[in-house]
Design a protein that fits this description.
SH3 type barrels, Alpha-Beta Plaits, 5-stranded antiparallel β-sheet, 3-stranded antiparallel β-sheet, 9 helices
Protein backbone atom coordinates (compact mmCIF):
# COMPACT_ATOMS: atom_id res chain seq x y z
CA UNK A 1 0.00 0.00 0.00
CA UNK A 2 2.85 2.37 0.90
CA UNK A 3 4.60 1.52 -2.37
CA UNK A 4 1.47 2.31 -4.39
CA UNK A 5 1.01 5.59 -2.53
CA UNK A 6 4.60 6.56 -3.27
CA UNK A 7 4.12 5.75 -6.97
CA UNK A 8 0.98 7.86 -7.01
CA UNK A 9 2.54 10.81 -5.18
CA UNK A 10 5.74 10.78 -7.22
CA UNK A 11 4.03 10.15 -10.54
CA UNK A 12 5.56 12.65 -13.03
CA UNK A 13 2.25 13.07 -14.85
CA UNK A 14 0.50 13.99 -11.60
CA UNK A 15 3.27 16.44 -10.74
CA UNK A 16 2.93 18.17 -14.11
CA UNK A 17 -0.85 18.40 -13.72
CA UNK A 18 -0.44 19.97 -10.30
CA UNK A 19 2.18 22.37 -11.65
CA UNK A 20 -0.13 23.42 -14.50
CA UNK A 21 -3.03 23.89 -12.09
CA UNK A 22 -1.01 26.00 -9.65
CA UNK A 23 0.64 27.98 -12.46
CA UNK A 24 -2.71 28.86 -14.07
CA UNK A 25 -4.12 29.97 -10.70
CA UNK A 26 -1.09 32.24 -10.18
CA UNK A 27 -1.33 33.68 -13.72
CA UNK A 28 -5.05 34.48 -13.49
CA UNK A 29 -4.74 35.86 -9.95
CA UNK A 30 -2.09 38.22 -11.28
CA UNK A 31 -4.21 39.06 -14.36
CA UNK A 32 -7.27 39.88 -12.26
CA UNK A 33 -5.18 42.02 -9.93
CA UNK A 34 -3.90 44.00 -12.92
CA UNK A 35 -7.44 44.45 -14.26
CA UNK A 36 -8.68 45.74 -10.92
CA UNK A 37 -5.66 47.87 -10.08
CA UNK A 38 -4.58 49.23 -13.45
CA UNK A 39 -7.43 49.03 -15.98
CA UNK A 40 -10.06 50.34 -13.57
CA UNK A 41 -8.06 53.59 -13.18
CA UNK A 42 -8.36 54.43 -16.88
CA UNK A 43 -11.02 57.13 -17.14
CA UNK A 44 -11.78 56.86 -20.86
CA UNK A 45 -14.40 54.13 -21.26
CA UNK A 46 -13.23 52.98 -24.68
CA UNK A 47 -9.56 52.71 -23.63
CA UNK A 48 -10.54 50.95 -20.40
CA UNK A 49 -12.59 48.39 -22.31
CA UNK A 50 -9.79 47.58 -24.78
CA UNK A 51 -7.19 47.42 -21.99
CA UNK A 52 -9.26 44.83 -20.12
CA UNK A 53 -9.62 42.80 -23.31
CA UNK A 54 -5.88 42.85 -23.96
CA UNK A 55 -5.08 41.89 -20.35
CA UNK A 56 -7.48 38.93 -20.58
CA UNK A 57 -5.89 37.86 -23.87
CA UNK A 58 -2.46 37.95 -22.19
CA UNK A 59 -3.84 35.64 -19.50
CA UNK A 60 -4.79 33.03 -22.11
CA UNK A 61 -1.47 33.51 -23.90
CA UNK A 62 0.68 32.96 -20.79
CA UNK A 63 -1.47 29.99 -19.77
CA UNK A 64 -0.79 28.37 -23.13
CA UNK A 65 2.95 29.12 -22.80
CA UNK A 66 2.97 27.52 -19.33
CA UNK A 67 1.30 24.32 -20.55
CA UNK A 68 3.64 24.10 -23.55
CA UNK A 69 6.69 24.59 -21.32
CA UNK A 70 5.70 21.96 -18.75
CA UNK A 71 4.80 19.36 -21.39
CA UNK A 72 7.62 20.31 -23.77
CA UNK A 73 9.21 16.86 -23.51
CA UNK A 74 6.01 15.24 -24.74
CA UNK A 75 5.22 17.59 -27.59
CA UNK A 76 7.57 15.88 -30.06
CA UNK A 77 5.67 12.61 -29.81
CA UNK A 78 2.49 14.28 -30.87
CA UNK A 79 3.92 16.07 -33.93
CA UNK A 80 2.76 13.43 -36.42
CA UNK A 81 -0.66 13.12 -34.80
CA UNK A 82 -1.14 16.87 -34.76
CA UNK A 83 -0.10 17.10 -38.39
CA UNK A 84 -2.65 14.49 -39.46
CA UNK A 85 -5.48 15.89 -37.36
CA UNK A 86 -4.61 19.54 -38.02
CA UNK A 87 -6.25 19.56 -41.44
CA UNK A 88 -9.43 17.97 -40.10
CA UNK A 89 -9.58 20.45 -37.22
CA UNK A 90 -9.03 23.39 -39.59
CA UNK A 91 -11.92 22.24 -41.79
CA UNK A 92 -14.24 21.54 -38.87
CA UNK A 93 -13.44 24.79 -37.09
CA UNK A 94 -13.01 27.05 -40.12
CA UNK A 95 -15.81 29.38 -38.97
CA UNK A 96 -14.26 29.72 -35.51
CA UNK A 97 -10.80 30.29 -37.01
CA UNK A 98 -12.24 32.91 -39.37
CA UNK A 99 -13.99 34.59 -36.42
CA UNK A 100 -10.75 34.77 -34.44
CA UNK A 101 -8.97 36.18 -37.51
CA UNK A 102 -11.81 38.69 -37.84
CA UNK A 103 -11.31 39.72 -34.21
CA UNK A 104 -7.64 40.46 -34.88
CA UNK A 105 -8.60 42.52 -37.93
CA UNK A 106 -11.24 44.45 -35.95
CA UNK A 107 -9.00 45.16 -32.95
CA UNK A 108 -5.80 46.00 -34.81
CA UNK A 109 -7.31 47.25 -38.07
CA UNK A 110 -9.59 49.79 -36.40
CA UNK A 111 -12.60 49.14 -38.64
CA UNK A 112 -14.88 49.96 -35.71
CA UNK A 113 -14.79 50.33 -31.92
CA UNK A 114 -17.26 50.02 -29.07
CA UNK A 115 -19.75 52.87 -29.24
CA UNK A 116 -19.63 53.15 -33.03
CA UNK A 117 -22.85 52.92 -35.03
CA UNK A 118 -22.44 50.39 -37.83
CA UNK A 119 -24.26 48.13 -40.22
CA UNK A 120 -22.65 44.71 -39.93
CA UNK A 121 -23.90 41.56 -41.69
CA UNK A 122 -27.11 43.41 -42.52
CA UNK A 123 -27.70 44.40 -38.87
CA UNK A 124 -27.66 48.10 -37.98
CA UNK A 125 -26.89 49.18 -34.43
CA UNK A 126 -24.37 50.45 -31.88
CA UNK A 127 -21.37 48.28 -30.95
CA UNK A 128 -21.59 47.37 -27.25
CA UNK A 129 -19.02 44.54 -27.09
CA UNK A 130 -16.28 43.04 -29.27
CA UNK A 131 -15.53 39.44 -28.33
CA UNK A 132 -13.02 37.00 -29.80
CA UNK A 133 -15.74 35.16 -31.76
CA UNK A 134 -18.67 37.58 -31.90
CA UNK A 135 -19.43 41.29 -31.95
CA UNK A 136 -22.54 42.41 -30.04
CA UNK A 137 -24.79 45.24 -31.19
CA UNK A 138 -27.75 47.10 -29.71
CA UNK A 139 -30.01 47.02 -32.75
CA UNK A 140 -31.74 50.04 -34.23
CA UNK A 141 -34.45 50.29 -36.85
CA UNK A 142 -36.57 47.36 -38.09
CA UNK A 143 -40.09 48.14 -36.83
CA UNK A 144 -38.83 51.39 -35.20
CA UNK A 145 -38.17 54.42 -37.40
CA UNK A 146 -35.47 57.11 -37.37
CA UNK A 147 -32.53 55.06 -36.02
CA UNK A 148 -33.99 54.46 -32.55
CA UNK A 149 -33.17 51.39 -30.45
CA UNK A 150 -35.70 48.58 -30.77
CA UNK A 151 -34.50 46.72 -27.66
CA UNK A 152 -32.89 43.70 -29.34
CA UNK A 153 -29.28 42.74 -28.64
CA UNK A 154 -27.72 40.99 -31.65
CA UNK A 155 -24.51 38.96 -31.79
CA UNK A 156 -22.75 38.79 -35.17
CA UNK A 157 -19.89 36.46 -36.06
CA UNK A 158 -16.59 38.29 -36.53
CA UNK A 159 -16.03 36.29 -39.72
CA UNK A 160 -18.75 38.36 -41.40
CA UNK A 161 -16.29 41.24 -41.93
CA UNK A 162 -14.61 39.13 -44.64
CA UNK A 163 -17.89 38.43 -46.43
CA UNK A 164 -19.87 41.68 -46.41
CA UNK A 165 -19.11 45.43 -46.39
CA UNK A 166 -19.02 47.31 -43.08
CA UNK A 167 -20.98 50.55 -42.89
CA UNK A 168 -19.63 52.78 -40.14
CA UNK A 169 -21.75 55.84 -39.29
CA UNK A 170 -19.34 57.37 -36.79
CA UNK A 171 -15.72 56.34 -37.35
CA UNK A 172 -13.81 59.30 -38.83
CA UNK A 173 -16.78 61.55 -39.57
CA UNK A 174 -19.48 61.37 -36.85
CA UNK A 175 -22.04 63.29 -38.90
CA UNK A 176 -24.64 62.43 -41.52
CA UNK A 177 -26.34 64.43 -44.23
CA UNK A 178 -30.09 64.35 -43.87
CA UNK A 179 -32.99 65.89 -45.77
CA UNK A 180 -36.48 67.27 -45.13
CA UNK A 181 -38.98 67.83 -47.94
CA UNK A 182 -41.57 70.60 -47.56
CA UNK A 183 -44.48 70.95 -50.06
CA UNK A 184 -45.63 74.55 -50.64
CA UNK A 185 -48.69 75.67 -52.62
CA UNK A 186 -48.35 77.31 -56.03
CA UNK A 187 -48.97 81.05 -55.86
CA UNK A 188 -47.26 81.46 -52.50
CA UNK A 189 -44.23 83.69 -51.96
CA UNK A 190 -41.61 81.04 -52.80
CA UNK A 191 -38.71 83.40 -52.00
CA UNK A 192 -40.08 83.95 -48.51
CA UNK A 193 -40.59 80.20 -48.14
CA UNK A 194 -36.97 79.58 -49.11
CA UNK A 195 -35.76 82.21 -46.64
CA UNK A 196 -37.89 80.77 -43.82
CA UNK A 197 -36.44 77.31 -44.37
CA UNK A 198 -32.79 78.37 -44.56
CA UNK A 199 -33.10 80.68 -41.53
CA UNK A 200 -34.83 77.95 -39.51
CA UNK A 201 -32.18 75.33 -40.15
CA UNK A 202 -29.29 77.75 -39.51
CA UNK A 203 -30.82 78.93 -36.24
CA UNK A 204 -31.50 75.49 -34.84
CA UNK A 205 -28.54 73.40 -35.98
CA UNK A 206 -26.03 75.94 -37.28
CA UNK A 207 -23.57 74.91 -34.56
CA UNK A 208 -23.10 71.56 -36.33
CA UNK A 209 -21.59 73.28 -39.37
CA UNK A 210 -18.26 74.27 -37.77
CA UNK A 211 -17.89 70.94 -35.95
CA UNK A 212 -18.62 68.99 -39.10
CA UNK A 213 -16.26 71.16 -41.16
CA UNK A 214 -13.41 70.47 -38.71
CA UNK A 215 -14.04 66.70 -38.94
CA UNK A 216 -14.29 66.89 -42.73
CA UNK A 217 -10.87 68.57 -42.93
CA UNK A 218 -9.42 65.56 -41.13
CA UNK A 219 -11.11 63.31 -43.68
CA UNK A 220 -9.49 65.26 -46.51
CA UNK A 221 -6.05 64.71 -44.97
CA UNK A 222 -6.63 61.00 -44.45
CA UNK A 223 -8.51 59.93 -47.58
CA UNK A 224 -8.49 60.69 -51.30
CA UNK A 225 -11.85 62.46 -51.24
CA UNK A 226 -13.26 65.63 -52.75
CA UNK A 227 -14.01 68.64 -50.59
CA UNK A 228 -17.64 69.50 -49.93
CA UNK A 229 -19.66 72.08 -48.04
CA UNK A 230 -21.14 71.35 -44.63
CA UNK A 231 -23.43 74.39 -44.81
CA UNK A 232 -27.21 73.75 -44.96
CA UNK A 233 -28.72 74.05 -48.43
CA UNK A 234 -32.32 74.66 -49.58
CA UNK A 235 -33.37 73.76 -53.13
CA UNK A 236 -36.74 73.35 -54.80
CA UNK A 237 -38.37 71.72 -57.81
CA UNK A 238 -41.78 72.11 -59.46
CA UNK A 239 -44.01 69.10 -59.77
CA UNK A 240 -47.63 68.63 -60.85
CA UNK A 241 -49.16 69.51 -57.48
CA UNK A 242 -46.86 71.90 -55.59
CA UNK A 243 -43.43 73.44 -55.12
CA UNK A 244 -41.29 70.89 -53.33
CA UNK A 245 -38.52 72.37 -51.17
CA UNK A 246 -35.67 70.14 -49.96
CA UNK A 247 -33.58 71.11 -46.95
CA UNK A 248 -30.21 69.35 -46.88
CA UNK A 249 -28.28 69.69 -43.64
CA UNK A 250 -25.68 67.94 -41.54
CA UNK A 251 -26.48 66.31 -38.22
CA UNK A 252 -24.88 64.24 -35.45
CA UNK A 253 -25.28 60.57 -36.32
CA UNK A 254 -27.25 59.88 -33.12
CA UNK A 255 -29.57 62.89 -33.34
CA UNK A 256 -31.43 62.48 -36.64
CA UNK A 257 -34.86 62.02 -35.05
CA UNK A 258 -34.56 64.77 -32.44
CA UNK A 259 -33.12 67.19 -35.01
CA UNK A 260 -35.99 66.62 -37.43
CA UNK A 261 -38.46 67.21 -34.61
CA UNK A 262 -36.80 70.54 -33.72
CA UNK A 263 -36.75 71.67 -37.35
CA UNK A 264 -40.38 70.75 -38.04
CA UNK A 265 -41.49 72.69 -34.95
CA UNK A 266 -39.55 75.76 -36.06
CA UNK A 267 -40.66 75.59 -39.70
CA UNK A 268 -44.32 75.08 -38.79
CA UNK A 269 -44.34 78.06 -36.44
CA UNK A 270 -42.59 80.32 -38.99
CA UNK A 271 -44.96 79.39 -41.81
CA UNK A 272 -47.97 80.00 -39.58
CA UNK A 273 -46.49 83.41 -38.72
CA UNK A 274 -46.25 84.35 -42.41
CA UNK A 275 -50.00 85.20 -42.37
CA UNK A 276 -50.83 83.15 -45.43
CA UNK A 277 -47.93 84.27 -47.61
CA UNK A 278 -46.59 80.71 -47.41
CA UNK A 279 -48.90 77.70 -47.18
CA UNK A 280 -48.30 73.97 -47.01
CA UNK A 281 -49.60 72.02 -49.99
CA UNK A 282 -51.51 68.76 -49.98
CA UNK A 283 -52.90 66.47 -52.71
CA UNK A 284 -56.15 67.92 -54.18
CA UNK A 285 -58.57 66.70 -56.83
CA UNK A 286 -60.72 68.90 -59.07
CA UNK A 287 -63.98 67.72 -60.59
CA UNK A 288 -64.85 69.45 -63.86
Amino acid sequence: MDEQLKKFLFNPYLGKMIAVFIGIIIIWTFIKAIRRGFASRIKDKDNRYHTKKIISFLGYFFSAILIAFIYSDKLGKFTVILGVTGLGIAVALQEIIASIAGWFVIVFGGHFHTGDRVQLAGIKGDIIDIGILRTTLMEIGQWVDADLYNGRIVSVSNSSIFKEPIFNYSADFPFLWDEIKIPVQFGCDYKLAEQILIDSVKEKIGQNTDLAHHSWEKMLNKYMIEDTSTEPVVTFVLNESWIEFTIRYIVDFKKRRSTKNILFHKILSEIEASEGKVKFASPTNRLI
